[in-house]
Known about the structure:
Elements: E1 9-12, H1 16-27, E2 34-38, H2 47-50, E3 54-55, H3 62-76, H4 78-82, E4 95-99, H5 104-116, E5 121-124, H6 126-132, E6 143-147, E7 152-153, H7 156-169, E8 173-176, E9 179-185, E10 188-194, E11 199-201, E12 204-207, H8 213-218, E13 226-237, E14 247-249, E15 254-259, E16 262-267, H9 286-299, E17 307-319, E18 326-329, E19 336-340, H10 346-363, H11 377-380
Parallel strand pairs: 1-2, 1-12, 2-8, 4-14, 12-19
Antiparallel strand pairs: 3-7, 4-6, 5-6, 9-10, 10-11, 13-16, 13-17, 14-15, 15-16, 18-19
Helix pairs in contact: 1-7, 1-10, 3-10
Bound molecules: flavin-adenine dinucleotide (FAD).
Amino acid sequence: MKIATKGRVVIVGGAIMGSFCAWSLRRAGFTGPIAVVEKDPTYQYSSTALSAAGIRTQFGTPENIRMSLFGADMFRNIKTIFGEDADVGYRERGYLILGTPEQAGARKAAAQMQRENGADILALDAQQLQARFPGIRFDDVGIGTLGARHEGWFDAWSLLTLVRRAARQLGVEYIAAAVAGFDTRGCAINGVRLSNGDVLACELCVLAAGAQSGRLAAGLGIDLPVVPKKRTVFCFKTPFTLPNFPMLFDTSGIWIRPEGEGYIGGIQPPQDRDADADGDFEPHHELMEEMFWPRLAKRIPAMEELRLQRAWAGHYEVNTLDHNGVVGPHDELSNLIFATGFSGHGVMHAPAVGRGVAELVTAGGFQSIDLSALGWERIRDAEPLVEAIVY
Ligand SMILES: Cc1cc2nc3c(=O)[nH]c(=O)nc-3n(C[C@H](O)[C@H](O)[C@H](O)COP(=O)(O)OP(=O)(O)OC[C@H]3O[C@@H](n4cnc5c(N)ncnc54)[C@H](O)[C@@H]3O)c2cc1C
């Protein structure tokens, strides 16, 4: 990996990934100019602003577990890192992921692997679950795995605001413009073309454009399989609230967690209604009646009387090869670094990805968490690093 010296680093996309890359570069001692190019400074359509902002350590890939642990540690110590007024509303209530009796063996093995990688996961049977979570039905459940620590949710907007402010204070420049294309010379990008006609000279370019990353990479002739998939979040109230409610992932595919006075929840649309969603942010309203509500009522009968408040949709930046992020340099355009493709787990992993990218740029390789398994080579060679636990 080429180590940047004093030339400009241009980061494409200024939401959570791009901002953590910029801030981490400064923290790692990079003193050259850093420009973050963001086409929409309101972030209204960014995945970051529209996410459910959960953090879990229950993954099938060790790298994802370690990145989550790093994120959770940051959220716990947010004031030490970002100052006394910093608050990202971190609630460490755990993910409760339910499994059928047939899945119990595999899920216990996964929990063991997660523990070996530093997570704190309990594997509970139906009786233990019932004692902990009255109000939820567990009669068809064979196992529930619960993160006792390092899992829960936070406020993604507050986190983005904090890291952007901190990056700016360290001299990072945010440019409000869209990246329209790239200039290359030999095996390197030497200019980033903006919609306002400017061309930014660059020594290194970081692609952190979320769901648009695949489209931008195509402009360089690179086939990066990252596409926008629409995911809807329903926001609702129920006649009562259950105490200590976790982030619940049901065997039926629905998820639900507390938010303010009520709850948010959702479900992945069926494949035949999950086309690439470029520019489409209209919620999948019909999924509430068709799929979400009946399944929720089955699991938590008293929630049958929910009152829908609103719904919104955002885009997952789905890596269609394996649902894992792509982090690291391209093999031919060696000054292009990917930080994208996290397929619905990018907010929780952004702190660790930022640090990893900063290590690549300042030290020439990963120092803290070895993220090389997430590199471009597996995409080039179509050798998936499959993440089995996806939602
Ligand atoms: C409904 C939903 C729920 C989710 N829940 C979770 C969760 O619980 N936990 C979790 O960790 N993750 C979750 N995610 C995923 C998470 O939001 C993303 O993985 C993460 O936000 C990716 O961050 P990003 O900065 O790469 O992308 P984004 O936040 O999308 O930012 C990319 C930025 O690039 C900018 N951009 C794009 N093209 C250009 C261009 N040509 N020029 C300049 N700028 C450009 C965009 O304007 C945007 O601001 C969820 C996502 C959704 C939609």
